[in-house]
Amino acid sequence: MSCLICENPFARTLCAGVGQEFHCPECGQGRVSQELLSLMMLLNLQLDIGRSRQWLKERRQSDPLPIIRVSDILLCCAAKDATGPATGAEG
């Protein structure tokens, strides 16, 4: 299975009790909660590679195997095929 962040085919992804654990040569090690995985599938979201890697790097200072949860979604996710934020400007 590919990496949950960058989809690297050389990553190992394991089912863990709280979601899925990944070991990627590019992103490193981490976990994604089952609740977040389900929400990502439901809303057609994917993890933003740059933001997710930065989030993991910061969290690894206190946790060697950090878990990305729903509460982290604004920092680590981007909508697929999403348009930019509305500016309020007309035509």
Poorly predicted regions: 81-91
Q: Return the domain count.
A: 1
Q: What share of residues is helical?
A: 25-40%
Strand order of the largest sheet: 1-2-3-5
- Please indicate the percent range of residues in DSSP E strands (runs of 2 or more): 25-35%
Structural class: alpha+beta
How are helices and strands ordered from N to C? EEEHEHEHE
Cα-atom radius of gyration: 14 Å
Number of helices: 3
Distance between the termini: 45 Å
Question: What can be said about the biggest beta sheet?
Answer: 4 strands, mixed
**Secondary structure: number of strands:** 6
Average per-residue pLDDT, rounded, comes to 82
Give an overview of the whole structure.
The chain has one domain. Helices cover 27% and strands 27% of the residues. The protein has helices at 34-43, 49-59, 73-76; strands at residues 12-16, 19-24, 28-33, 45-47, 67-68, 77-79. The strands form two sheets. It has a four-stranded mixed β-sheet. Strands 4-6 form a two-stranded antiparallel sheet. The radius of gyration is 14 Å and the shape is globular.
Give the tags.
single chain; 91 residues; alpha+beta
Secondary structure layout plus pairing:
Blueprint: E1 12-16, E2 19-24, E3 28-33, H1 34-43, E4 45-47, H2 49-59, E5 67-68, H3 73-76, E6 77-79
Parallel strand pairs: 3-5
Antiparallel strand pairs: 1-2, 2-3, 4-6
Outline:
The chain has 91 residues and is of the alpha+beta class.
